[in-house]
Amino acid sequence: MLKLIRLEWKKNNIGKYIRNAVILSALLCLFVFALTFLGIANDPDGTLDAAPGMDTVSSLIELFTGMAFLIFTSVMLSSFIVSAYQNKTMNLMFTYPVRRQKILISQMVSVWIFNFAALVLSKLAIYLCVFIGSGFMPSFFAVDFDMGSPSFYLQLILKSFVIVSMGFMALFVGMALKSSKAAIITSFLLIFLTQANVGDFTMSGNAVFPFVLTVISFGFAVLSICHVERRDLS
User: Fold this and answer.
1) How many domains does the chain fold into?
2) Residue 26: how many other CB atoms lie within 10 Å
3) What is the 3-state secondary structure (H, E, C) of 162-216?
4) Do 91 and 122 contact (CB within 8 A), yes or no?
């Protein structure tokens, strides 16, 4: 399996995704820094303009990194898998002396590992940047995290796990419709479902929702591979 994962990274030129992930993380860091310390989210009178529950730094970071990397994950899954079905390169891959399911799982895992690591590192970099900045500049958002606490890292890892796993829902839709665009559009719909506010109500603050979402995500992952041995590639 590890050989197949490395082969997927090499075949899909993982270097360009590393570069894009670094650029994305840098832009997110600059944006969050500007929101937190430069007051670009403030109304003209200087008061903070934020949705209910979004007046803390951690909620800000989780929102924007989650949105960005859910889309990034869906784009990679589309490129690695859905596009391979569209341009018929999957036909060649399925001639390898390896079960189709194993090939598809290696593609999914290769994307998942990359984006999970990228999201965790991106969050750590942004949190560290805000932590350092809070020692020199006044913050317009409440700095509500403690980087010295083990629970901080546990929550960061668990939330990253959930976000990246949600990409499997977008993959299932993309494979069902044989459309990369459908997979990417699904990722946007998932963002609206999980992050949007309706008045004071939002699913992002529900403690049970991430667990349910993860179970559903892996359910879609199983559905994506369960019939691949008999699936018509035409």
Assistant:
1) 1
2) 13
3) HHHHCHHHHHHHHHHHCCHHHHHHHHHHHHHHHHCCECCECHHHCCCHHHHHHHH
4) no
How far apart (Å, rounded) are the C-alpha atoms in residues 179 and 146? 42
If phi over 0 gives left and psi between -120 and 50 gives alpha, with beta otherwise, what is residue 175?
alpha
Which residue range forms the structural domain that includes residue 219? 2-226
Express each pLDDT in 25-79 by its tens digit.
999 999 999 888 876 665 555 555 555 556 688 888 988 999 899 999 999 998 8
DSSP 99: -
Asked whether the whole model's pTM tops 0.90, one would answer no
d(CA 2, CA 106): 8
**Cβ atoms of residues 115 and 164 within 8 Å:** yes
Residue 142 dihedral angles phi and psi, to the nearest 5°: -65, 125
Does residue 106 contact residue 202 with C-beta atoms inside 8 Å?
A: no
Provide the CB-side half-sphere exposure for 135 (13 A, CA). 5
Q: Which residues contact 33 (CB under 8 A, 6 or more apart)?
A: 129, 130, 133
- How many CB atoms lie under 10 A from the CB of residue 161? 17
The token pair that represents 220 in the structure block? 């879609």
